[in-house]
Every structure is written in C-alpha cells, then in structure tokens.
Specification:
Blueprint: E1 7-10, E2 18-23, H1 31-34, E3 40-47, E4 57-65, E5 69-70, E6 74-78, E7 93-97, H2 101-108, E8 112-113, E9 124-128, E10 136-142, E11 147-154, E12 159-162, E13 168-170, E14 176-177, E15 186-190, E16 196-199, H3 203-206, E17 211-217, E18 223-227, E19 243-246, E20 251-256, E21 261-264
Parallel strand pairs: 8-9, 13-15, 14-16, 15-17, 16-18
Antiparallel strand pairs: 1-2, 1-7, 2-5, 3-4, 3-7, 4-5, 4-6, 9-10, 10-11, 11-12, 17-20, 18-19, 20-21
Length: about 270
C-alpha cells in the first residue's frame, strides 16, 4: 500500500473519489503500474505553484480501483480542517502515493495501539494496548476478517504467554500425513467406524521439539494410529512400530532430537 515514485495529475472537482489523469511526467509511475486493483493506498494530494487558489493539501487512506480511481475513505490531515478538500475546477493539483506518518510511527513502536489501523491488510500483526502499556498487551493477527489473538504480555507478573489457541485440521475418515506446516496444530480424525492412520514426518529433518497434536473423534472404541518415519520410533517402542491413541484422547506428539524418537503423553 506504500510505493515510491507514484504521482498523477487530477482534475476531480468536489469531495468525490480522485479520477486520476495519468503520470505527472516520465519520472513517475501511475497508481495502476504500482498497485493492484482493490488494495488500500496512502495518498497525498497537493496543489502546484501554478494553482490559482493558493496552497491546498490532503493526506489520507483510500482504495485504488483499476484503472485510475482512488477513493478518499479516511482523511488524516488536510488544509480543510483535516476534512476532505472540496477541489475547485481552477485548482491545479497532483495526487501522490505517500508513506503515512501513522504507519511509520506504528512500525517504530511495534504497531502498538488501542485499535487496529484502518490501513491494515491480512497478515498485519499488532499490539492491543487498550488496558494500558504497563498492564496488558495483547498480540493480535488480522487475518482479513477478524483479529486472532496470538499471545499476551501481562504487566503483573511481567510475563509473556503465547496464545494456547490450536488450529484443528480435520482429515475426516482418510487419516493424514503430518506436514512440517502442521507444527503446533491438531490433526482431527473421524474414528467412528474404524482406526485412522496418522503418518509422522521424518523427525530428524524437522528439528528438536517439533510437535503436533492428534485427536480421534466419533468413537472411544477406535484409535488414531501413529506411524513413525523410516528408522524412527515412538517412546520406547521398536523402530517403525506404530502406536494407537484411543479416540477421545487429545494427545501431543513431540520429536525428541536428543534421543531421536517421538514422544507422546499417552
């Protein structure tokens, strides 16, 4: 949402969306050349020295729509008492892509705020300081539709605790092969009618302490059957031997790099 070297002429009158008129000159890009349609953008609109009505400016956050429109969704600062400038037909002005002072400040202090900034995109992580900096900071990840808590700092007794939130990957009746990207997640299997196999990755390639949870739902009479990689074992069992986890029992499986074996709590 922040790009360098973007400047376009504009002749929009009033307070509506900017209808861009093309790159200022050969030294600048258009918004379309630097942004994809639908993304949030910082903009800065400013009159030129040739403008007949004196200096005017407007700085804010909007949305770029291809091929040449920028909305004015959130005006941050302007010569019109920080409201949208009502541009006149006799104004001569340029619309730039600009870095926000708000964004730069957020980066410098670790995105700490009492509310998520309006320009946040999916994947933006921030610190909710609503309770006070010395009391509680909640680390949140904006996924595009909701904030997901990933951890929190408690001022008393001054500790940071990762969120215990688990992501459950439901594999149904097909069983599963654990992937490196499943670290910290839970593999759900439907054991209503039969045991389901969960094949573990090569622990030696994942590193000491890699862990995953497993859970069988639908029956306590059937099991999730853990199968280690070639040449590896589970707990004190034989190399290659499987281990059954009864349905209804949530179990963590951890790679013990020191002993070269998987460990379970069941």
């Amino acid at each position: 949402m922040i790009k360098d070297g973007v400047a376009e002429t504009c002749a929009t009158v009033g307070t509506g969306s900017f209808a861009l008129g093309g790159a200022l000159n050969a030294g600048f890009n258009t918004f379309a050349a630097r942004f994809t349609s639908g993304v949030a953008v910082y903009y800065f609109a400013k009159t030129t020295q040739a403008s007949l009505n004196g200096p005017k400016y407007e700085y804010g956050v909007g949305t770029f729509t291809s091929p040449s429109t920028v909305t004015r969704a959130d005006v941050k600062l302007s010569s019109n008492a920080n409201a949208a400038v009502s541009w006149l037909s006799t104004d001569t002005y340029i619309v730039y892509s600009a870095a926000s002072a708000d964004a730069l400040a957020a980066l410098l202090i670790g995105n700490m705020a009492t509310s998520k900034p309006t320009w946040a995109q999916a994947g933006f992580e921030w610190l909710d300081s609503t309770a006070g900096i010395g009391t509680r900071l909640i680390r949140k990840l904006w996924n595009g539709s909701a904030d997901v808590e990933t951890g929190r700092y408690e001022g008393m007794p001054a500790v940071y605790v990762p969120s215990p939130r688990l992501y459950f990957r439901d594999t149904g009746t097909s069983g599963a092969t654990v992937a490196a990207t499943d670290v910290g997640n839970c593999i759900d299997c439907d054991v209503t009618l039969a045991d389901r196999a969960v094949t573990l990755p090569a622990g030696a390639t994942l590193g000491h302490g890699f862990s995953v949870w497993v859970y069988g739902y639908g029956s306590t009479g059937n099991s999730v059957v853990l199968t280690p990689g070639a040449g590896e074992k589970i707990n004190e069992g034989s190399v290659g031997a499987t281990k059954s986890i009864p349905g209804g029992v949530l179990t963590r499986v951890i790679w013990d790099g020191a002993k070269g074996a998987w460990r379970t709590g069941a």
